[in-house]
Amino acid sequence: MKRILPPWVRPRTLIAVAAAAAILAILPLVHGNRYWHNQLTETLLAIATALAWNWLGGYLGQVSFGHAAMFGLGGFIAGRMQVSLGVPMIAAWIVAGVIAGLYALVWGHPTLRLRGPYFSIATIGVGEATRLICTYWVWLTGGSSGMSLPVQVQLKYQLYWYALALALVALAVSYALRRSPLGLALLAIKSDVDAAGDVGVSAVRLQDLVLFLSGMTMGVCGGFYASYYSFIEPGDMFGFARSISFVLMGVIGGIGTIAGPAIGAVIFVLLRNSLIATYPQLYLGLYGLLLIFVILFEPLGLTGLYVRILRRARPDLGVTGMAAEESAVPATGAGAARVEQREAK
Amino acid sequence: MTAVLRAEGLSKRFGGLKANDNVSLSLEKGQILGLIGPNGAGKSTCFAMLAGSIPPTSGRVFLGEQQITGLPAFRVARAGVVRTHQIVRPFANLTVIENCTVAAAQCSGRDDAGSRELAREMLRFVGLEKRRNGYPAGLTLAQRKRLEMARALSCAPKALLLDEVIAGVNPVEARDMVALIRRIRDEQGISILMTEHVMAAVMSLCEHVVVLDAGKLIAAGAPKEVVQNAAVIEAYLGKKHA
After folding, report:
1. Which of A113, B39, B146, B178 could form a disulfide with B126 if both were Cys (CB 3.0 to 4.6 A apart)?
2. Which of A7, A184, A204 is facing B98, going by the closest CB pair?
3. Which CATH architecture has domain A11-299?
4. pLDDT value of position A256
């Protein structure tokens, strides 16, 4: 086992994930409930997007409010390739993903020089500009009336397993980016990009790499979404609400943690579907409230809550692993730096 | 003697301000070279140019025979010129040893396990080995300055640039720090360029000092001679004392 795997992979984690994946893979054959089948497919897709967002927003601390741009672009490119060129579905997803990743680099390479809120503001502009351009780019997107793909009931059922694979790949990348030696460099960039450069970390190259991976995964997810719903339109695909949903899933689950956003995605999908059913006018407002509450009381989301409970229940364990996450919250970092400055004076 | 790090006619303009004007200096192998001068003399600008943090307006920097002028900071660090910061900048979200491991992994050319080993060695060298699994937030200022040095040393540099590592710590810690700097040169053979306001430290550590004032080099020589130089006294204390 140890020979094949890099030293930073914990065999226990691998076995747990493999077991969970196996259960999820045979689950639909057992329950046969179409409603839950669709819910699970949606959730798995949401997990993949939340994790992909987190590579940039969590690991590097560059919170993007414009990730719907890559999601939408991937969706329309994959859709157009299937409808007009007859490209097979998977090939269309992959090409769309690569183009979405490259698109992310086109706007991200220059804007990633900005840090923190300035980067976030820039991504809002990018997201909205992409939405407007694509709304009027009728050749690609079909304009406001959207694009239809042929409806295939059998395929929609099978897409569950594709979504499962997508979520697993995203989880594997999340794990690798965080636990491999690269992960330390990413955290160093998040903490202090200039100091990271002074010890040899190439911030530009690593940020570009992470952004490309994130954008590409978003693009593939968009392609999946197009195949799954058979109808997509720019207002929804590129919508600001969609960008916000990626942020929200990350925040609920725990920004910057490996699996937190995946858990956040599960909660988010459950919440969204019940809220839309019960309060169709209010649910966006409720998102906002939720965001405020999480950031106020537990900036690390459910992961932070879990660690806090674990610490209280089992003080003997001496859980400290999450201290890294806690000090990674920007506010504390800046505070510490300020104290430092005073001491130095 | 051969120069490890050499600056030729470095100048830096910020708009109308000449922060550095035609500064040349040479750090010899195994030397501890002091760069001193009153506040605002341009020491930090000079450091930043040597370490690649900012590109010079004109002039050249050589590491041995290799020209490193205008390279980005991470390339300069990988080539072997590593700096510390006057106001310490630990990676707050990494443990003490991870702070050093990340540096070792990027610069030393070792693999994962080798980087961790080097990081631990350097922490032992500066006396922080016991603290390796804690976070920088739990360290005192003097310890953070040591961490800053251990992190730079983990890059296995040829030339180490120390930016006021003694200022701000108490006298006992300052004495230990002086001893540590000497050990870096004696035991690891790393050439050191340091700026420092604590003159006692400069006098005891440096064989040679260069003095900057208003961006220009005004004196160079052994510390004892330099502090009696009229131009230097004038720069620090004003004309009537010179």
Report:
1. B146
2. A184
3. Orthogonal Bundle (1.10)
4. 87
| ipTM attached to this prediction | 0.89
**Is B97 in the same domain as B207?**
no
pLDDT reported for residue A317: 60
Same domain, B28 and B128: no
Q: For B192-224, what is each residue's pLDDT tens digit?
A: 999 988 888 888 899 899 998 888 888 888 888
* Segments of chain A scoring below 50 in pLDDT: 1-2, 321-345
Interhelix angle for A89-111 vs A68-85, to 10°?
150
Domain ranges, residue B25: 3-80+157-241
Tell me the C-alpha distance between A287 and A231, whole Å.
25
Mutate to test the interface with A, among B44, B89, B91 (most CBs of A within 10 A): B91
**Cβ A199–B101 below 8 Å, yes or no?**
no
Inter-chain contact B106–A200, Cβ cutoff 8 Å? yes
Same domain, B219 and B236: yes
List of chain A residues whose C-beta atoms are within 8 Å of the C-beta of residue B105? 181, 184-185
B152 shares its domain with B225: no
Single-letter amino acid code for the residue at B45: T
Give A302's Cβ-side CA count (13 Å radius): 17
